[in-house]
Amino acid sequence: MNDAAGAAGAAGASGRTFLVTGGNTGIGRATAVALARAGGRVFIACRSASAGEAAVGFIKAESGSSLVWLLLLDLASLESVRSCAAAFGSRDEPLHVLVNNAGVAGQRGVTSDGFERNFGVNHLGHFALTMGLLDRLKTSGPGARIVNVASDAHYSAKGVDFDALRRPTRSFTGMREYAVSKLCNVLFTQELARRLSGTGVASYSLHPGVVASDIWRRVPWPARGLITRRMLTVEQGSVTSVYCATSDAAGAESGLYYDESAVRAPNPIATPELGELLWKYSTEWTGLG
């Protein structure tokens, strides 16, 4: 992982406004630090007010910037997502880059709205947030961006069973459903690029690397220590997110998938037809259709 690529990309952050979901911990917090250090105005969004305020203090101290704020957001609740979008929308603030970073891995169950938990948090909550902020992104361009943190786990997904997305997690580990949710991140990015062509808003998806972040917190110890000991640090894992959020080179094309700050071909099943179908269901299920 090339840390210099992230540092160089972050130079394009100065004076721009960023919103990073899950910015209170892990890759999201490291991303927020890099953007704030480079002169960006940074909003982080997370569920817990206390954890969020602690993260704001940490980001300010690490970056040397006072331009960091908190928004409350629970991606497992569409009501909370709508409230977060409205809270940002009430501010006299542009939005140049939305980094959809937050996520769960290996969790089981359903969201408060009845969707399979990995899908509901990793895709549907971010879909609703993006749609709620889309007008602000459009008016903040040209050069506005939507960055979706996906995973190379999406390569293991065989497709999207839309009926299964309305039921609790079926696999024991939840990793099969996680892979589907990450495929949805890639499909969403591609469909955004098609639908936003000519608006000045670009979209990107990415693999951050295999990172020792809090996403593994529910794996029991000592297994968690064995799994994470050779993984990347969260700072290393944030490099491609920062690159996609700020790099002039990444701004050349929309809808692409990145790994180690370079374009990589996604799973071949990420087709326009499947992306359009995902968009159809996502708009219906969020009440945005």
Q: Low-confidence segments, ≥5 residues, pLDDT <50?
A: 1-9
Q: Please identify the structural class as seen in this structure.
A: alpha/beta
Proportion of residues in extended strands:
5-15%
Number of separate strands: 8
CATH topology: Rossmann fold
CATH architecture: 3-Layer(aba) Sandwich
Query: Helicity level, as a percent range?
Result: 40-55%
Write down the overall geometry.
Answer: globular
- Name the CATH homologous superfamily: NAD(P)-binding Rossmann-like Domain
Number of domains: 1
- How big is the Rg? 17 Å
> What order do the strands of the largest sheet run in, or round the barrel if closed?
3-2-1-4-5-6-7-8
Broad CATH class:
Alpha Beta
State the helix count: 10
What does this structure look like?
With 289 residues, this protein is of the alpha/beta class. It has a single domain, classed as 3-Layer(aba) Sandwich (Rossmann fold). Helix content is 43%, strand content 13%. Strands 3-2-1-4-5-6-7-8 form an eight-stranded mixed beta sheet, with helices on both faces. The longest helix has 24 residues, at 117-140. The chain is globular. The model is unreliable at 1-9 (pLDDT under 50).
